[in-house]
Amino acid sequence: MSEKPLAEVVHSLKGRLRLRFLTEKRDQDFFQNLLESLSNIESIRNIKVNPLTGSVLIQYDGELAEIVQRLEERFEIKRVGKNGKGEPLRDTILAATYRLDEKIKKLSSYQLDLRTLLALFFLLLGLNEIRKGKWSSPPWYFTLMSAITLLRPSR
C-alpha cells in the first residue's frame, strides 16, 4: 500500500485554499489525476494546478473543515507556518476553536455557537459574583464586559 502524497497548506482564506506538493513537482500525470479527482467534490468551485511549482489553488463553497476532511481522504495534509517549521500554536488554537464551534452549531441545530455560549457563561459568572455580594471585586465587571463584547456583532 502506497503512502498518501504530502500536501502542505501554504495559505487559506474563506473560500480559497492553496496547497503545495513539493515531492510531486513537475509530475504532469500526478496533477492531471489530482485535478480529475478533486473535480468530483461538490463544494469545490474551481481548481488551478501548476505542476512546475507543485502548487494547487482550490476555490470552494462551504466550510474549510469540510474541504480539508475530503482532502485528507486523498492526501496527508500538513499546515506550514511562515518559517516552514510546522503549524504555529496560534493556528492550532484557532483550528481547535473552529472545530469546537462547528460541533456546538451541529449539536444545537445551528441555534447556538461558541461565541454565544461564551457570552452566556461570562454573563452568568458575572451575575454569580454579584449575587455573592462581591460588588467591590473586579471579576464580575470583567466577566460582564467580556459577555457584552462577545454579544456585539462582529465587524
Q: Would you list the SSEs in sequence order as H and E?
A: EEHEEHEHHH
Spans of at least 5 consecutive residues with low confidence: none
What's the CATH topology label of the largest domain? Gyrase A, domain 2
- In the CATH scheme, the class of the largest domain would be Alpha Beta
Cα radius of gyration in angstroms: 21 Å
User: What is the number of strand segments?
Assistant: 5
Overall shape: elongated
Mean pLDDT over the residues: 82
Please bin the fraction of helical residues: 40-55%
Strand order of the largest sheet: 3-4-2-1-5
CATH architecture of the largest domain: 2-Layer Sandwich
Spatial gap, N to C terminus = 48 Å
Biggest sheet statistics: 5 strands, mixed
Q: How many domain regions?
A: 3
Task: Report the total helices.
Answer: 5
Strand content: 15-25%
Query: What structural class do the secondary elements suggest?
Result: alpha+beta
Describe what you observe in this structure.
This protein has 155 residues and is of the alpha+beta class. 45% of the residues lie in helices and 19% in strands. It is built from five helices and five strands, in the order ββαββαβααα. The chain has a five-stranded mixed beta sheet, with helices on one face. Strand 3 and strand 4 form a beta hairpin. The radius of gyration is 21 Å and the shape is elongated.
Q: TL;DR of this structure?
A:
The protein is an alpha+beta fold and 155 residues long. The protein is built from 5 helices and 5 strands; from the N terminus they run E-E-H-E-E-H-E-H-H-H.
